[in-house]
Design a protein that fits this description.
This protein is an all-alpha fold. It is built from 4 helices and no strands. The longest helix is centred in the last third of the chain and has 25 residues. The mean pLDDT is 96.
Length: 94
């Protein structure tokens, strides 16, 4: 899935949000609901990327999707943080 990050950024970010939400709640929810759950748990510096992905999901067709350079630069650190949280939660449940 991470290999798809450069060309399917929105979907990968929202899928990671769903993974974290499912591990945290035991419930599978829609992508936008998962984003809301994760946004409430992220440090402020990691929120803009997911907020933008959520907004694209709700309002924009894939063909019309564009990412500002400033947000593209924040994708890697956001993914690193979310993966850290997923691993941490997974380890506590294992």
């Amino acid at each position: 899935m991470l290999a798809d990050l450069p060309h399917d950024t929105r979907n990968v970010l929202l899928t990671l949000a769903r993974v974290w939400t499912t591990l945290g709640t035991g419930t599978i929810v829609a992508k936008d609901s998962a984003a809301d759950w994760v946004l409430a748990r992220l440090a402020p510096e990691h929120r803009p990327v997911l907020e933008f992905a959520r907004e694209l999901y709700l309002t924009t067709a894939y063909a019309d999707e564009t990412w500002p350079d400033e947000l593209k630069a924040q994708v890697g650190p956001h993914v690193d943080e979310v993966l850290t949280q997923i691993r941490r939660l997974h380890d506590t449940l294992a």
